[in-house]
Amino acid sequence: MTHLSLTFDETPEAASELHRSLAAWLSRDERLRRFTRLVEEPPPPGVLGGLATAVELVTAAGPVLSAGIGAFGYWLGQRMTGHPISFQVTLADGTSQSFTADRRDRELVLAELELFVRREQVEQAGAGTGPAPDPDSGAGPGAAPDPGSAPDPGSPTSP
Question: Which residues in 68-96 are b (16+ Cβ under 10 Å) and which e?
Fold first, then answer.
């Protein structure tokens, strides 16, 4: 499963506003709503609300991740008002990368962001550390093959 955490390199108040805006923007998209989570710190005593410290996108599906990055890119373009925006992306394993984007290089930065996230997905799949099979699906090691699937070339029943 891919877990992507976005944080902004701004003052705590400005970052909180950006986190809330991004979470609201992503939650408006039907495909992304259930995968988006706003992370907030608890408010100190006597204060009505805490600061938002991150936006998380949690998904196992590549198309959802691509849609999330695309929506983030559009949102980011709308927020650039003369100064670059710096943000950090942290994956579930703790790997992180910082990015700074302005209007001129936004597309390049978003391509680098997607490459960073995709590289991690490929490494997880290659190392066998990707998402565990659903125990109710019958898939996984030792499970009977799907009747519609091709036989394993190494099995004794292969032609």
Answer: bbebbbeebeeeeeeeebebebbbeeeee
C-alpha closest to that of 70 among 57, 83, 81, 80: 57
**Residue 80, amino acid:** M
**pLDDT tens profile 64-117:** 877 888 889 889 888 877 788 999 999 888 899 999 988 888 889 989 998 898
Burial of 108 (0-12, 13-18, 19+ CB in 10 A): exposed
How far is residue 49 from each of residues 46, 53, 65, measured CA to CA in Å?
9, 12, 30
Lookup result for tokens 């989570």: 37
Pairwise CA distance, residues 112 & 6, whole Å? 15
Task: Indicate the burial class of 99 (C-beta count within 10 angstroms; 0-12, 13-18, 19 or more).
Answer: buried
Residue 121 in tokens = 């997905």
Map tokens 């991150």 to a residue. 54
Q: Which pTM value belongs to this model?
A: 0.70
